[in-house]
Amino acid sequence: MKIKLGVIFGGVSVEHEVSIITAIQAMNNIDNQKYEIIPIYIDKNGIWYSGAMLRDIKIYSDMELLKRYAKEVVLYKRDNEFVLQNKKGILRRDITTLDLCFPIMHGTKGEDGNLQGYLETVGIPYCESDTYAAVVGQDKVFMKQIWKESGVPVVKFDWFFDTDFNKNPEKIIERLEKIQYPLIVKPARLGSSVGIKVCKNSQELREAIVEAINYDTKILVEEVVENLKEVNISVLGNYQKQAVSVIEEVGSSNEFLTYEDKYRGGKGKAPSKGMASAKRIIPANISDALTKEIEDIAVKAYRSLNSSGVVRIDFLIDTKNEKVYANEINSIPGSLSFYLWNKTDKEYPELLDDVLNIAIRDFKNKNSKTYSFDTNILSDFNNKNMKGVKGIKK
After folding, report:
1. Among 363, 365, 370, residue whose Cα is nearest residue 98
2. H or E stretch at 290
3. What is the CA radius of gyration of the chain?
């Protein structure tokens, strides 16, 4: 019997379209002999839809057509089954049951722990990092604080809330300038290089902060690594066991890898292959010693956040001083980093099968732990104990 797999994608974040690309790539490579794939698309208003047509990327060019034929759905638990039900109509009909969910959503409300928390509440097993790892993996401030404490090398950084800046911008600017220019400004909880700018003076810094505040309430500012080489590596596994992919060197004509570089193959190009369309050199042109150092740091960074499934960790290298810094982790990376594993002799269907098997093992392991007790402390309460509580009659 096939495992019924709900693939959840889309979402309300600015990375909505990127999520669609990644999910369709994955659905086209999941083993159809083992899994019955049920696409679950979340539109930009947070409405859930399901239907076979959602596996065709062309349907997303006509949202009215999509909403006419796809069914609006909800997911809930009933009698130890996870049910996908048609949301509309007087008689809400069950569409199917699910055994496992695969969230393939980037950014806000998908990769940041919100969706994972909902799936935890429903009780359904799901792939990739859990709520805790998703939260700290999406919040670059939390991430760097944990990494720094764990001995993972990171660049100098500072952070603040939008209200701090709005209340006293001069004080924030003065504090940030102690790191020294050039600086890079980032919304703390977005991905895909959205809202990121490099600044060389106080005017540029002020403008970049104002721009970043459009995307997030929490802003991260870091020193820019000189003589920069950007490399990425993927890690697969859980807290017990980890494997690393080949390392890629990412090329860009910009000061950092932009959204255009990652998903449009450069300015003016149509989106096609997600992160697989970015310019890259695989394997990266670095020494064996540097390769080993990055692999070791990547595993340490992965375990310190208690990540699970497949992630991508981005690194910055100061080529002059041969210093390596962990930049950020992508808990649900663009294209699920399949292009890195292809070069590590693991084809995409095998990678996806590994991710799904890890999720099942993690769920079984989690269920073996004790989270509550059968005893009910309220059973010993009587009216005497409840004296003074409003609404209790003598």
Report:
1. 363
2. helix 288-304
3. 23
Predicted confidence (pLDDT) per residue in 182-191, tens digit = 999 999 987 6
Predicted structure pTM score: 0.88
Q: Would you say 54 and 70 are in contact if contact means Cβ atoms under 8 Å apart?
A: yes
Helix ranges (H only) for 305-384 are 338-342, 348-367
| Distance from C-alpha of 351 to C-alpha of 172, rounded to nearest angstrom | 45
Tokens found for residue 19: 């999520």
Domain co-membership, 233 together with 250: yes
Q: In this structure, are residues 324 and 150 in contact, taking their beta carbons and an 8 Å threshold?
A: no
CATH number at 30 reads 3.40.50.20
Asked if 37 and 51 touch (Cβ cutoff 8 Å), the reply is no
Enter the tokens of residue 8: 């959840």
- The string of pLDDT tens digits covering residues 122-141 is 999 999 999 999 999 999 99
Residue 326 structure tokens: 């962990």
Q: Which residues pair with 222 in a beta bridge?
A: 157, 184
Range(s) of the domain holding residue 31? 3-126
342 & 354 share domain: yes
Residue 74: phi, psi to the nearest 5?
-130, 155
Distance CA 135, CA 115 (A): 11
* 351 contacts: CB under 8 Å, gap ≥ 6: 236, 310, 336, 338, 341
